[in-house]
């Protein structure tokens, strides 16, 4: 496939040249410069080196050096050189890639296929296999032709064609991260919940690391409930996650030429947007909400699709509890979906750093407690400004600040100490 960049040993020269550089190797690596140069350029990003370790064997000393993640400091003639932290993907470039994905969604309306791409890359995970990447999951292996040709992945080559320019623009972002970033962004941009994503996934390095066919769910198995449980339980997911994730069918259409299911066209799909045709699960099939559960439950519109694996959500007693809940409460659906989507996107992934990283700003720090003089006095009478200033001066003299109260009540301690001294004095005088 010409449109998909394959990072295999046979394509080392072109692949390594296309990998971006967002940081430099530590200066200490210069001691092994001679052994390193035949394999990589000193300006090559650490993440790119680590993403190809399965294909390119470096000397053990070099491996120890390039795996350093902390900031490296070197002083030379009074100057300081800082090397930025490098992970499997560049965090700043991931943020830029997300903006490009948002623009792509505005012009192509490709939300459904991007969601499906992320799901199908992650959904091959087998919790019973410990080794990576043999265990499957979110490792970017879906970019290889052998996996794209799996029946369940029909049409996903179009998703790769859409994302390839973004990958080319940000080569130090791994395919594994890009697929999951695109999937989560598509849900959010369609009006869905904010998904607590983390990034830093390594890529599988070649088609020999693709999972076998048959790992993904079928649309019309003989026993839909058992089939869904077999597939999702193998991933380590439960009934609640099965139903919540099924709710993503609120986006998109099924095309008979790809899946064998659905009508060629309906009144809801004849005019697009995007390529016309197919049969959608919902009327507004580019809007992420809980209408999927409402429409599946009512089943009043022949132009809306209901697969056997959809219908069973209101037939199986355990599934039905969640399906009924989501049909009535969109907030509950959004909450459970966001958690399930994030969990799915991490399945089988190998992260650098090991805990992954977020590209969203964390919650703002709580405002420090302000100094209020009256809190450190007794009685209900309002203190004069002069007294407040005096208390404040004493407060700051013992280590307090206007924005940071002392851990203990200094003034109360003084009062207690004076009281104790008074009692002791009276006892001595009495004697």
Automatic annotation (TrEMBL):
CDD domains with a match to the protein in the record: ascorbate_peroxidase
InterPro entries according to UniProt: Ccp1-like (IPR044831), Haem_peroxidase (IPR002016), Haem_peroxidase_sf (IPR010255), Peroxidase_I (IPR002207), Peroxidases_heam-ligand_BS (IPR019793)
Cellular component terms (Gene Ontology): chloroplast
Gene Ontology biological process: cellular response to oxidative stress; hydrogen peroxide catabolic process; response to reactive oxygen species
Segments of this protein annotated with the region Disordered: 204-223, 249-276
Leader peptide range in chain numbering: none
Pfam families given in the database record: peroxidase
EC numbers, comma separated: 1.11.1.11
Keywords: Calcium, Chloroplast, Heme, Hydrogen peroxide, Iron, Membrane, Metal-binding, Oxidoreductase, Peroxidase, Plastid, Potassium, Transit peptide, Transmembrane, Transmembrane helix
Cofactor: heme b
TM stretches of this protein: 410-429
Cellular compartment(s): Plastid, Chloroplast
Main EC class the enzyme belongs to: oxidoreductase
MF term (GO), any: heme binding
Domain (Plant heme peroxidase family profile): residue spans on this chain: 114-365
Reactions that this protein is recorded to catalyse: L-ascorbate + H2O2 = L-dehydroascorbate + 2 H2O
Family classification: Belongs to the peroxidase family. Ascorbate peroxidase subfamily.
Record-given protein name: L-ascorbate peroxidase
């Amino acid at each position: 496939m010409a449109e998909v960049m394959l990072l295999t040993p046979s394509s080392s020269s072109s692949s390594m040249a296309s990998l971006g550089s967002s940081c430099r190797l530590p200066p200490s690596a210069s001691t092994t410069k001679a052994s390193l140069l035949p394999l990589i350029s000193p300006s090559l990003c650490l993440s790119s080196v680590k993403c190809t370790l399965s294909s390119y064997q470096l000397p053990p000393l070099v491996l120890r050096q390039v795996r350093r993640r902390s900031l490296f400091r070197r002083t030379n003639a009074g100057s300081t050189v800082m090397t930025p932290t490098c992970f499997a993907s560049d965090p700043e470039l991931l943020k830029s890639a997300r903006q490009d994905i948002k623009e792509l969604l505005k012009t192509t309306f490709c939300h459904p296929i991007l969601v499906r791409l992320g799901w199908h890359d992650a959904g091959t995970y087998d919790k019973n296999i410990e080794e990576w990447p043999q265990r499957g999951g979110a490792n970017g292996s879906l970019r290889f032709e052998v996996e794209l040709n799996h029946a369940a992945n029909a049409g996903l080559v179009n998703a790769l064609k859409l994302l390839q320019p973004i990958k080319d623009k940000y080569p130090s972002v791994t395919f594994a991260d890009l697929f999951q970033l695109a999937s989560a962004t598509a849900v959010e941009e369609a009006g869905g919940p904010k998904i607590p994503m983390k990034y830093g996934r390594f890529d599988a390095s070649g088609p020999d690391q693709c999972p076998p066919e048959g790992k993904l769910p079928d649309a019309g198995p003989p026993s839909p409930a058992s089939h869904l449980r077999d597939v999702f339980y193998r991933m380590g997911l439960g009934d609640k996650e099965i139903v919540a994730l099924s709710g993503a069918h609120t986006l998109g259409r099924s095309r008979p030429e790809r899946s064998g299911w659905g009508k060629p066209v309906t009144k809801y799909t004849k005019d697009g947007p995007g390529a016309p045709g197919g049969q959608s699960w919902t009327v507004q099939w580019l809007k992420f909400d809980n209408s999927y559960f409402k429409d599946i439950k009512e089943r009043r519109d022949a132009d809306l699709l209901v697969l056997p694996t959809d219908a069973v959500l209101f037939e199986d007693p355990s599934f039905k509890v969640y399906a009924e809940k989501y049909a009535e409460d969109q907030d509950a659906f959004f909450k459970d979906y966001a958690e399930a989507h994030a969990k799915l996107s991490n399945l089988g992934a190998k992260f650098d750093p090991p805990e992954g990283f977020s590209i969203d700003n964390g919650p703002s720090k709580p405002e420090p407690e302000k100094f209020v003089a009256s809190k450190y006095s007794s009685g209900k009478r309002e203190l004069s400004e002069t007294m407040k200033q005096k208390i404040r001066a004493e407060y700051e003299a013992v280590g307090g600040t206007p924005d940071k109260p002392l851990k203990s009540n200094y003034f109360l301690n003084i009062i207690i100490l004076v009281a104790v001294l008074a009692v002791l004095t009276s006892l001595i005088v009495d004697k």
